[in-house]
Specification:
Mean pLDDT: 91
Helix content: 40-55%
CATH topology of the largest domain: Nucleotidyltransferase, domain 5
Low-confidence stretches: none
Shape: globular
Number of strands: 14
CATH architecture of the largest domain: 2-Layer Sandwich
Number of helices: 10
Number of domains: 2
Largest sheet: 5 strands, mixed
Amino acid sequence: MIILSHKIQIKNPTVKQQIYFRQACGTSRFAYNWGLDQWKKQYDNGLKPTHFQIKKAFNAIKPVEFPWVFNVTKCAAEQAFSNLGSAFKRFFNGEGKYPKFKKKGQHDSFYLSNDQFKISENRVKIPKLGWVSLTESLRFCGDAIKILSATVSRIADKWFISISVQMETTPAKVSKSQADTVGVDLGVKNLATLSNGSTIEGSKPLKKLSRKLARIQRHLAKCTKGSKRYNQQKIKLARLHYRIRCIRQDSLHKLTHHLCQDFKIICIEDLNVKGMMKNHKLAKAISDMGFYEFKRQLEYKSSLFGNWISSVDRWFPSSKTCSNCGNKKEELKLSERVYHCDKCGFKIDRDLNAAINIEREGIRLLA
């Protein structure tokens, strides 16, 4: 079974629809924060709380104390307690930090179970609201498709619905001229250099739009907080950040799709992106490329296309090793863009040399 999601923008939501979305997001946020507060109080009193107990207590008092939760779908409040339980489970397993209270305007969203909404072409029916138009229809269709859930969220001043579906077969199509292996070296100058000699330039949206971003931020800093002009500039800033994100993700999607469609085995480095970001000279350029997002997309797309991902250790000297004779240099400066072997005199582009070594090491690890 394969589970995928299709995120679709809601087309020109009316004032009534936007009010409903904000109320549903507020209900979900309030239920989560209320549950977290109750969890802390019970834990301080020596009890062992569970999200089922807190959810039951909330349902008992909501008709009297919180009657406004009935204005929106019941899933908005109910799923918040399940999310709280999952957050504490990750915390106790050492996979995440202690849950924090949610803030208004940050990651606003609410959940819908599959029995609470209907989809008809480019429309979706939401409880206590009615039909809402979408910019496109659901990408996945057929008798073997099962709709699991949906999440309505807001980015900048736009609203989206992400629909999760379960499928029995993969929708991906493999290229007929699919090659065997490829090594991928990620970099700051070029997004990726492949072992077959091709290079993929990064879109670098943050670098290209940094002047516009700084201008809007300066304007925002001069506005009075809470004023009408302040809110307008805040929306402008959020729109620009969303545009930067879309440009970056588009280039990464094209690259990962090309790799998964045209190669059977993909060899990559297990980069420590969090540690690389601590270098203040390269942090902005690394984040602009989106190394972590590249790896995330490659992992889930490889399961669709049936690829093998060979992850090479981050300490493997891919750049310092000669791809011709195997000689290893003791030191190699970042400014040296052409690799010159002191033993055999072989000259090659630094990134291409690293990609070839990554491919060989990845094949060795698989063997």
